[in-house]
Fold each of these.
Amino acid sequence: MAVIYCVEDDDNIRELVLYALRNTNYIAEGFEGGKEFFTKLEEKLPDLVILDIMLPEENGLSILKKLRDNTKTKALPIMMLTAKSSEYDKVKGLDLGADDYIIKPFGVMELISRVRALLRRSALSKITSNDIINLGKIFLDNERRLVTVDNEPISLTYKEFELLHYLLKNKNIVLTREKIMNEVWGFDFEGESRTVDVHIATLRQKLGQAGTAIKTIRNVGYKIGG
């Protein structure tokens, strides 16, 4: 039975989320803020975290960054709760490594559907994860979240790493922008495909000469390799 933590300072929303999760046979615990949440993480890691962005002491984006920077929690599935008007926070959260988001106010059915989908994607990712992949001078160590080019470490953001990992897992295969968006940013991310183009450009720049391995397939998308 999956264990889910919800970090939300609004009592009514937190209780609604916990009720919905428990009523769907998940083990759910709620926290008002980051302090008690991190204390609980020391005792037990959950299978998924639902994290509000607007929190009183430490905001959700800061908590998200700490989770992604910690070896123990870097792969923890995280769903962000965002306000309807917070487009910047939504995109920022996804770029920092959130796996999905849901906009408040939301329906219970939508929440449970997204939770189930995220847990399925997480389980599949663990099964299909390639630990070490290389292409030419590019080496990617998925377990250590490390990328090197010609033995020199390259600093990538969370989503840049995920994008490169996805390309390398599918080297020599043409991937559409929509497919990349769905796989790297989440199945229901409503951002424009321009997001993919911007990240590809940044990734090529950081990889230097090795970045030429990422090919643009006109009017379709991208592939890496020959």
Amino acid sequence: MSQDGNEARFIERLRARDEHAFNQLVRQYERRVYGLLLRLIGRRDEAEDLAQEVFVQVFKAIGAFRGEAKLSTWIFRIAVNLSKNRNKYLARRKADSQDNFDGLGDEVSLEGTKEGTVAAIARPDEMVSGMQLEAIVERAIGELEPEFREVLILRDVEDMTYEEIAEITGLADGTVKSRIFRARAQLKQAVELALGEKIG
């Protein structure tokens, strides 16, 4: 996808190592990058460290950015790749994801998620409040296998298109759609099981 004029000029400023442009970039993307990393990794300390690393990598590699994708897509690709590497490292250290997965809290609320995630799971059960349901959904997302969690978050939380997700992950469009379908099914099953245990 070609860049519009404003983005192209902004990228040129970044390539020229314009400090004001880089600060603007960080302000524009830091919350979304941190929120994405927190959902992918589930640990605030790791997400904070990786968010800083994302912008270091952007600064180092901006000269090689050709503008074939949107700048935001490229930034998210860096974030996703760093999170994959960190998750592998944590797995090697036998990090227990259930113990380490922090509650995400208000800073990365699931409010506004797309079709199928919270809305399709929610049921008119007076015993489960909206906040309780959101906490259950957050926990269930955190327990999905990484390859399913990644595409579900990019689609239903970050509201990205299938094409953008394919660019970010390097997966074929069909694989992206298949993984999102399976992720939603797994999430729905996990949440319904959790609700059944809570109410039972």
